What does this fold into?
Amino acid sequence: NTPLQVVPEIAYPCTEIKKKNPLRILYYKNKISVEIAHFLTDGGGALAFFRNLIEKYLDLKYFGMEKKSENREIKHIEYTDLYTKYMKKVNKEKTVKRAFHLPLKILEKGQYHITTGEIDVESLKEESKKYGTTIGKYLLSVYFKILLDRYSQAKNPIVIGVPVDLRKIFEETTYRNFFINITPSVDASLGAYSLSEIITYLDNYFALKITKKEFYKSIYKAMNPMQNIIIKSVPYLIKRMFFPFIFDYYGERGYTTGFSNLGIFKVNKKYEKYLKGFRFLPPPSKRCKIKMGVISDCNKVYVNFGNLTANYDIERDFFVYLRKRGIKSKIITNYF
It folds into this structure.
């Protein structure tokens, strides 16, 4: 019930989100940003909200004097709980209990370092086609390759949490969270991996995991009725004190890092000339110290690393790897 406010951006991104203020609309010069707490929605819901906000803003700024009939309302999307709708009792999903974690020291609280690489979409498309894969899967494979090469002595598996938008799988629309993390993992102790081997593994893993039947398992694990009854019975103050630690221990303990790909950001043709580029910043977490977020438009792919440390070797290795294959990146940071 709190009215939305538009405020200047004065701090590091993703560091001021609080329970009382879970949705922030920010501006800095000619940049518009939205920061949304994950308990409100996921990347898919945030993207739908942001698209509506941008188009409404451009309507008011550039098209307000046109025919009144062109004035439009923000598209109505239900805030529906689809997890409950599709929850059925099945065997629980089994996931990796303990993943390798990056041995890096975290920055002081309130800092979040961002590295963005702007890449020509055609160069990535051409390279991906050589391996018979998509741009998203190619970038994920390169990320795995960089981590495996740098941490070849890792004792626990390298696991990348990859959120999948269930709206597409179940052909539904909602502003509420409706995603499941899948967890491709590679064991570095088995030896060096080529990029082709990683792509083949991901092709097979995705084919097995991204199905309705498999997601029923994940939904049941997340929405187990007995588990929810216990959670609801715990007083709020106790939840507030202990649940962040429980989530960190049982949730992100199983991930090395995260890779989120929102795909192509599409708007009505008439708005395109006003938009110069995009960013999608993954939420910071102490356990997964570095994460990657990807978003595209028709011309460029924007690869964004969020980093809670002062070590940028992974980002550097990633963009150097692409460069050696003829894929150039324009690098932009908020720390140099």
About this structure: Residues 235 and 241 are 10 Å apart (CA to CA). The radius of gyration is 21 Å. The chain is about 35% helix and 20% strand.
